[in-house]
Design goal:
Distance between the termini: 158 Å
Largest sheet: none
Order of helices and strands: HHHHHHHHHHHH
Number of strands: 0
Structural class: mainly alpha
Number of helices: 12
Helix content: 55-70%
Radius of gyration: 40 Å
Strand content: under 5%
Shape: elongated
Amino acid sequence: MQNIKYIRKFIVFIGFFSVSFFSSAGSYDDFFKAVRFDDVRTVHALLQRGFDPNTVNPDGVTGLMLAVREPSLKVAELLAGWPKVKTEVRNDKDESVLMLAALKGYLPLVKKLVEHDADVNKTGWAPLHYAASGGQVAVIEFLLENSAYIDAESPNGSTPLMMAAMYGSPEAVKVLIQAGADLNMQNQLGLSALDFAVRGNRQNAKELIETGLQRQAARKAKAEPQTAGPALAQSTTTAPVVPPVPPAATALPAAAVPQSKPADKPAKTGW
């Protein structure tokens, strides 16, 4: 009888384990299927039942990364704001979720990711590089407002302005220039933003950068006389040019003064 009881308990345990296993396996498949089809209701229900939002698929990709890649934006925004979700995950190319969202211009998702601690200033290729490459002006402005480094350098020293000049849009180039991007920086190949625009055959970007460089040169030239002016004024003050002083007047001898009539009376002096 005692053995029969143990056998029954073992069978019950196996039953619970099997139900739990198959239920978990079903949830796993349901989750990633719902992510691919942007089925936000199913994903939300699974998360509420305790499904781990950081679970990876057989390729090692999280639901959040997959949602941005598809794209499944409703699911992506849900996952980005879910408690304990890891927003700073990378793919095999070291791209973060924020970088992919910035490239595609998904501003609401970008905002939610930043609110939940996604790294704005990721080392190497940064989200601002990707936003600039995609010409995503609204995302560029938002990232700059949230302390993105405007002259961030990629592994080869390229800046967001260089990427905008070659791959982005004139509007993106203009925004970066107006925000103070360095027009003179060069990457490890010695190429500047102007070189990128020329190589990319981006005439509008080229003209914007040239205009920026001309204005920069004009400001520099204007500042130089202002710097020399006070020094010149000081020199003039300390060492004034004094006009020559005429010699003191001397009384001429009476014989040298022409007389129109005899000096028999004293001349009127006006006293």
